[in-house]
């Protein structure tokens, strides 16, 4: 049972990681927590899911649609809720509230457009189970793990090695200095917000595959898990988001497996408090 | 974290309130008997020519994670309303005022308060969930307004008070019926239980399942819980699979329940799965797909039942909504027939009189079976055991 539960934990955890990456990217560059992240990517993936179920589009099209819609929502968020406030130089708390407002708008829009019910994910593939003796792994779990890992490495490489990545890191370091040095920081911010939302779009589709359904209200619950990972890993740390997402998933699953299922969140979040007490900057965070 | 969620819920509430106002102003189709034109103390006005006009409030789970229950109930009620107003022309005209509870206790209390104090309804049908009834029932009872549950299956609903009625078969009758049938036909000896620990209905179903299993001498191999709103059940189910039960007993609402069933099959659990009342909804097949096959449920209503009344209802429902009715639609449909019968018996739209008429109900034959109340106004009726097969429930044999 140990190995089977470990696979369960890894699958759940890798989706947490992808969600947390979206928070981390935006926090790194803008210094704010985007409370609308969860709602944005569930909206995007619901569009993808509807394309799959009512127009018989293949999964690839759904994935692209989800990425594009999420990125566009991210763009709208930047132009309506973030940029106007940034121009006025208001405290960061104001943009936190404006993203909450955006989150509510998106969630209500989902209820109007898609209804409040959970929508089943088509099971055209991924139902095949591989029996590896001690564990049974669904092909869908393998796909999720693979996509999540590849995405994380590509992202890490992109941030560390490319010019755009350098610009993002410079902006994250100090927006004003980067601006003076000739980096178009507005552009960098737009790219970051869209990239973070697009990553969410991928995560949303993967989550749909993992749980076999998407629910409009998932955005909030999963968003909070992503936030927890963000804090656990150290805000703004990309490796932190990756590792701690998986860690949280595994902890949760093992709490249920070897303890009591009602303590799932209690143990997971209790552990976060303990870690923060011992290491306030998070597991991978830099000391302030 | 706490701060954010608090902020968010505050903001949600205020926005929700704005939306609610928008909705109710758009939906209020009752022209004359609204607000100021009705004297405050008379629940409904008597129309011209001896025709009694009765306003009945409905509190339903119309938005949120269990909206399919509320939608089915609304459809059943509206179908019955059309038929009854046509049949009772000149004698009784009923009007329905729908309020959305969102499946929340607070929502149900607010809705009941609004219906009683603002809309002056003569009676209330609903709310959908047992937990909501436990919260909102006392409010109606205190105000001496009959409140009629059409899907509350928990123990103790009628203990709320004299004004609380229901036509929904309690789980304490339905679940043992299903379990007996399953044990007899499938030779089940060991069972595992899983249920939503933060939902009154699901917890009550679990208690009934456990008590029945103990009474029948079945071995309980394991128990697991989850919360309404959870999406991942793999850890719990992997754990239960390890205990190797002959049957998995699931007490949950359809959304989580269907996902549990699906996940169980994906993890290779081959045990018979038996569910509570929450599974009596076609959504189960949409979410669980082929994994639902073999799921055993007890229900007071089956659209396959060879009965003239049932078939006429199924036909009318399909003609209007282009889908088959479920148990929730059927019990809602029946409830309005009971209301109309009692209102006609009372001869006027008056709360106290209506309550007395309801209490005397005996041998009412509806589409969800024969109904009488015992001395505590608990419904007495029979449950049919059905099994899921190829996307619908068929009689279990």
From TrEMBL, chain A:
Keywords: Amino-acid transport, Cell inner membrane, Cell membrane, Membrane, Transmembrane, Transmembrane helix, Transport
Lipid metabolism listed as a keyword: no
GO CC term, one of those recorded: plasma membrane
Membrane topology category: Multi-pass membrane protein
Keyword Transport: yes
TM segment ranges: 12-33, 63-82, 142-159, 187-215, 227-250, 262-278
Entry's Gene Ontology molecular function annotations: L-isoleucine transmembrane transporter activity; L-leucine transmembrane transporter activity; L-phenylalanine transmembrane transporter activity; L-valine transmembrane transporter activity
Protein's cellular compartments: Cell membrane
Domain of life of the source: Bacteria
Entry-linked PANTHER family: BRANCHED-CHAIN AMINO ACID TRANSPORT SYSTEM PERMEASE PROTEIN LIVH, HIGH-AFFINITY BRANCHED-CHAIN AMINO ACID TRANSPORT SYSTEM PERMEASE PROTEIN LIVH
Family to which the UniProt record says this protein belongs: Belongs to the binding-protein-dependent transport system permease family. LivHM subfamily.
Protein name: Branched-chain amino acid transport system permease protein
